[in-house]
Design brief:
two-stranded parallel sheet, 144 residues, 4 helices
Length: 144
């Protein structure tokens, strides 16, 4: 089947995390290509991919050292990735936060932009000669 295999599928080789938080995905991509060449079931490849991404999220969180981790962005519409990341972050002692009522993709971004525009403490620079518009707290805003 093409479904995601259980966590027993294991991991692709762990991505290397450089001191500047740059993740080298080459080992994982090479592993996926090897799995495809060896006719590994798609569900196993998918599970390894998602497991590896979740472990990379935990590795970055551990490097940063903040106990609270916010998961946002379109990739977290992926249920498999979100659930694995949340579970693994919790298992590692982190407190993950994720979208529950607002989508993590452009829909959530748009809502945030609307909220910022409606906030009287935020001044929107409406000069159309520059794009995108800039936002600044009203107390710190310079005259435009």
């Amino acid at each position: 089947t093409c479904g995601i295999a259980h966590d027993g599928a294991g991991l692709a080789p762990a991505p290397w995390l450089a001191p500047d938080y740059v993740v080298d995905w080459e080992p994982m991509i090479a592993s996926i290509l090897r799995d495809v060449a060896e006719a590994t079931p798609v569900g196993v490849i998918s599970a390894r991919f998602h497991n590896t991404l979740a472990d990379a999220i935990v590795a970055v969180a551990a490097r940063v050292g903040e106990p609270q981790v916010v998961l946002t962005g379109g990739c977290f519409q992926n249920k498999a990735l979100s659930e694995r990341a949340i579970d693994r972050l919790r298992d590692a002692g982190f407190k993950p936060y994720w979208h529950q009522r607002v989508p993590p993709n452009d829909g959530g971004l748009s809502l945030g932009q609307i909220a910022a525009c409606l906030d009287p403490a935020v001044k929107v620079r409406a000069d159309r000669s520059t794009w995108p518009p800039t936002f600044a707290k009203a107390s710190a805003a310079k005259p435009v």
